[in-house]
C-alpha cells in the first residue's frame, strides 16, 4: 500500500500490494472508551476530513479512510474484531472465517441468515459473487489486485456488465459461496476482510457512479452525498445487532465534512467548542502539530496513537551501489534520530531495524547494524576503508514537501561524514510513486514507505523484494532497491506454498534477515498515525489494520 500524504493504498500490480507514503509505526495504541458505563444512543457524530474519499464503492476502495468509512455501510465475508489486545479474524457476512480445501486452493464460506439491505431484502451468496465480479470491470478500477491474481480464469475475465459470470466463483445455494484459486493462498480469508469482498445487489448497481449510491447492508446507509462537500449517513433500520459480530449502531447520524486543511482541523478539535466536542478526524494530525499535541496532557483522553502495520525506509539501489561494504557503511552512517525529527519526532514512530514491523505475522526482532539509532560513524568509516575509500556521488529521491526535504538533508549530512556526496532530487508529491516505480527513473537512494494490506508478511516482503517482478512491472516496480537475490527469491517461493502459519512466519523472518544482510534498505521507523476526537466522543477503537480510529463502536456522550 503506498501513500503520499497519508494512507491511500495505490494498487501495485504485484502479488501483494501496498505502499504508503507519509507514515505509520507499531507501538502502543490507545483504545479508549473515554469514560465508563454503557455507550450512549443517539446524536450525530461529525467527521472532519481534509479531502473527500477517493472511492466508497466497495470494489474500488483502496485508501484507509475510505475503507474505514465503508465499514459503517457494507459488510465483507470476514472482518477484524479489534476489541482485544490483538486483531482477531472473524466471520462477518460469513458464519466463520471460511474453510480451505485442496491445499488451500479452494475456499468455502457460508453466509449468515437474516443479514438485510436497507430495503429489507436478504443478502445472498449470488450478491457476494456479483460484487466480487465487479472487481474485474474496467469501469470499476482502483481496488486491490488479489481477485484478478488468484481466481481461476481471472486474467481474461472482464466483469459482469456484458452478462458473463466468473465460473471459479460458485454459489451452490443461497447461503454458500466457493472460490477456486490458481495457487494455494493460506491467508485468503484475510484478503476477504478487505472492503471489496462485499455484496452488491445487481438491481441497485449503478456502475461507475456507485460511489455515491452504495447500497447498505451495514448499520448505516447513505442519506445524502455531495462530492467534495459532505456525506451524511443515517441508520439502516433493517440492520440487526444479532447478525453482526463487529459493529454497533449507537449514533443516529454520521456527518462527514470535507475540505479544511489538516492544521485547521487539528486546532478545531483541540479547542473542543460546539460541534467539535462531537467530532473526530480520519486523516492524521499534521506533522507540524504532532509533537505539541502528542505531549499535551489535557488531550490525553481523546488522542489516539495508532500503530500501523507499516515501515518508513530508505532503499539503496543494489544495481547502482554494487559494493556490499559501501551499502553496509550507509546502514551504519544514517542518523535515525535526525531522520525521525523530520517526520515529527517520537510520536511518529519507534526506530526500525527490520522491514517487518511488530504486529505483522513473520516479524522477528533483530538488528544487524548500529545498536545506537544515531548511527556508528567509526564502523561506517572502517567499512568505507575496506571498500577502498571511494568518494561516490549519489542521488536521493524524495517528495517535494518540507518534511521530506528535511529528511533528505539529514541523510545528506550523515553520508557526507563518510565521503559520500548526495544530490537531492525532489519529486512532485502527487506523482512521486508513479515516478520512482517506473524503472526508467533509477536513483541511488529512494525514500519509501509501505503498509500491509493485512497483518502478514505476505503483503510486504514479496512485493518489495521479489526481483523477478521488476521486469514484469516496469512502470509499477515496488522493488526500490532493485534487489534480485536468488536466496531471497527462494525464500519468497518457499513461504508462498506453506499452509502452516508458524512455519511460514519463520520463513518470512529468515527472508527479512536475508534482505538486511544484503543491505538493500535502511529501515527507519515503524510508523504510528495520530488522530484526535472531541471530548464527547466515546467508543473509539484503534484499528491497527487500517491505522485509523475505528468508528464501529463509536457513540456520542450526552
UniProtKB/TrEMBL annotation:
Keywords: Signal. The keyword Calcium does not apply. It comes from the Bacteria. One of its GO terms (biological process) is peptide transport. Residues 1-26 form the signal peptide. Pfam families: SBP_bac_5. The keyword Transport does not apply. GO terms for cellular component: ATP-binding cassette (ABC) transporter complex; periplasmic space. InterPro entries: Peptide/Ni-bd, SBP_5, SBP_5_dom. This is Peptide/nickel transport system substrate-binding protein. Residues 88-467 form the Solute-binding protein family domain. GO terms for molecular function: peptide transmembrane transporter activity.
Amino acid at each position: 500500500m503506498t501513500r503520499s500524504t497519508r494512507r491511500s493504498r495505490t494498487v501495485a500490480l504485484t502479488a501483494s500490494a501496498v505502499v504508503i507514503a507519509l507514515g505509520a509505526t507499531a507501538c502502543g495504541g490507545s483504545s479508549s472508551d473515554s469514560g465508563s458505563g454503557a455507550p450512549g444512543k443517539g446524536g450525530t457524530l461529525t467527521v472532519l476530513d481534509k479531502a473527500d474519499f477517493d472511492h466508497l464503492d466497495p470494489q474500488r476502495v483502496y485508501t484507509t479512510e475510505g475503507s474505514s468509512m465503508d465499514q459503517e455501510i457494507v459488510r465483507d465475508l470476514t472482518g477484524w474484531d479489534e476489541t482485544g489486545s490483538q486483531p482477531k479474524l472473524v466471520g462477518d457476512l460469513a458464519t466463520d472465517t471460511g474453510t480451505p480445501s485442496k491445499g488451500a486452493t479452494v475456499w468455502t464460506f457460508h453466509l449468515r441468515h437474516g443479514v438485510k439491505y436497507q430495503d429489507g431484502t436478504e443478502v445472498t451468496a449470488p450478491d457476494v459473487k456479483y460484487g466480487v465480479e465487479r472487481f474485474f470491470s474496467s469501469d470499476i478500477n482502483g481496488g486491490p489486485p488479489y481477485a484478478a491474481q488468484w481466481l481461476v480464469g481471472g486474467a481474461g475475465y472482464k466483469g459482469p456488465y456484458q452478462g458473463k459470470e466468473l465460473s471459479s466463483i460458485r454459489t451452490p445455494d443461497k447461503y454458500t459461496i466457493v472460490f477456486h484459486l490458481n495457487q494455494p493462498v493460506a491467508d485468503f480469508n484475510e484478503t476477504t476482510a478487505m472492503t471489496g469482498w462485499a455484496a452488491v445487489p445487481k438491481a441497485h448497481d449503478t456502475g461507475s457512479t456507485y460511489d455515491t449510491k452504495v447500497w447498505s447492508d451495514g448499520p448505516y446507509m447513505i442519506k445524502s452525498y455531495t462530492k467534495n462537500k459532505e456525506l451524511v449517513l443515517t441508520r439502516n433500520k433493517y440492520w440487526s445487532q444479532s447478525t453482526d459480530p463487529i459493529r454497533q449502531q449507537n449514533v443516529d447520524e454520521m456527518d462527514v465534512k470535507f475540505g479544511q486543511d489538516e492544521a485547521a482541523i487539528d486546532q478545531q478539535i483541540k479547542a473542543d467548542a460546539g460541534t467539535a466536542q462531537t467530532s473526530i478526524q480520519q486523516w492524521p494530525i499534521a506533522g507540524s502539530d504532532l509533537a505539541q499535541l502528542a505531549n499535551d496532557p489535557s488531550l490525553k483522553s481523546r488522542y489516539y496513537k495508532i500503530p500501523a502495520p507499516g515501515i518508513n525506509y530508505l532503499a539503496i539501489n543494489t544495481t547502482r551501489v554494487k559494493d556490499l561494504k559501501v551499502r553496509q557503511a550507509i546502514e551504519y552512517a544514517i542518523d535515525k534520530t535526525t531522520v525521525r525529527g523530520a517526520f515529527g519526532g517520537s510520536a511518529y514512530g519507534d526506530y526500525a531495524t527490520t522491514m517487518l514491523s511488530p504486529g505483522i505475522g513473520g516479524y522477528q526482532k533483530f538488528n544487524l547494524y548500529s545498536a545506537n539509532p544515531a548511527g556508528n560513524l567509526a564502523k561506517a568509516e572502517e567499512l568505507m576503508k575496506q571498500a577502498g575509500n571511494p568518494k561516490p556521488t549519489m542521488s536521493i529521491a524524495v517528495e517535494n514537501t518540507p518534511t521530506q526535504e528535511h529528511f533528505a538533508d539529514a541523510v545528506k549530512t550523515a553520508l557526507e561524514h563518510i565521503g559520500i556526496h548526495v544530490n537531492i532530487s525532489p519529486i512532485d508529491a502527487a506523482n512521486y510513486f508513479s515516478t520512482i516505480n517506473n524503472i526508467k527513473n533509477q536513483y541511488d537512494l529512494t525514500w519509501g514507505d509501505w503498509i500491509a494490506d493485512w497483518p502478514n508478511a505476505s503483503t510486504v516482503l514479496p512485493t518489495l523484494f521479489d526481483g523477478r517482478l521488476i521486469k514484469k512491472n516496469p512502470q509499477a516496480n515496488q522493488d526500490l532497491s532493485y534487489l534480485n537475490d536468488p536466496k531471497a527469491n527462494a525464500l519468497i517461493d518457499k513461504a508462498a506454498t506453506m499452509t502452516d502459519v508458524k512455519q511460514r512466519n519463520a520463513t518470512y523472518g529468515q527472508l527479512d534477515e536475508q534482505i538486511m544482510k544484503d543491505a538493500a534498505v535502511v529501515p527507519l521507523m515503524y510508523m504510528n498515525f495520530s488522530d484526535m476526537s472531541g471530548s464527547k466522543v466515546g467508543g473509539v477503537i484503534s484499528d491497527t489494520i487500517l491505522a485509523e480510529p475505528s468508528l464501529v463502536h463509536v457513540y456520542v456522550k450526552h
